[in-house]
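Render S-acyltransferase in 3D.
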Amino acid sequence: MVELLDRKKSANWPELIGRCVVSFILVLLTQCSQFLVPQFFFDLPVFIQLLLSALLLLAVVGVVGWCRRLLRVRASAPAFVFCSVLFVWVVYIAIVRQAATHLMDLLFNGQIILLIFGLCRMLSSDPGLVSYSPSPSDLIAQSSSSEIDTYHQDTELGDRVRCCQICKAYVKGFDHHCPAFGNCIGHKNYLLFMVLLIGFLWTEATYLVCLSQYAAQFVVPDGDGTRLEISLSRKVASSTMLFSILQLVWQVLFLLWHMYCICFNIRTDEWIHWKRYPEFQIFIQSSHGEKSSEVRFKNPYDKGVLQNLKEFMASKR
Ligand SMILES: [Zn+2]
């Protein structure tokens, strides 16, 4: 099968810069919304603050989405991720770093640099693009609203080649299109995707440890009745803590899902759209000899957890 790397549209720089500026503004809006929680509810339990943060995030996403549609401007999800990482790094250097131990400082800065490097690698990585020109009959199948379409089952499309509906490209071992990393996730960059996901989790966990070291210096000794003035920098650090915890929770769930997918050799796209792919369907004929039959899900690629893991590690070429 011929590898194809030029499917992506060439970059339109003015548009790209415009999207990055929109993303930068979105990051500032998001972080400002997160700042409102420690600003007005600093004395509330962390759990309640987290709940308020999550609600505010949802509200910001909703309002910003509406404004973007109204103004017809587009943002770049990878630029949003980059700017969010940089924002946390700036807060760390400006506020949190002074209280971090030398080891944690080294660890956190190293992780951020690796994360930025990994994000750049992911943006330019080949997910396993393959050339494929659908025949007219395939195109009819694609435009059909039928749940069971079989255009992916062309004999040329072995090796679990699926079509990314966003990139309009065919990817071997396609899992999903990741807007945050600006690329399809396929058999060639799935491992990098997992490493990056773990990298994000590890960096956020390290940041939370650094934050706990920073917060420890504000603990008032027992019996001391005086209440310390809560500085602006403490509130900013606290808002990034809430944001990091929310990110951590979401990413742990995401990581667990992908670990499940790897263990049982199923891809996200196949799991969601299994009715599109005949190899995942088994037809159960009704016992009374009626014409109607029930369609059930069966994963033909599942060869047991150990074998699946072995194949996953060996299938990068
Ligand atoms: Zn894609």
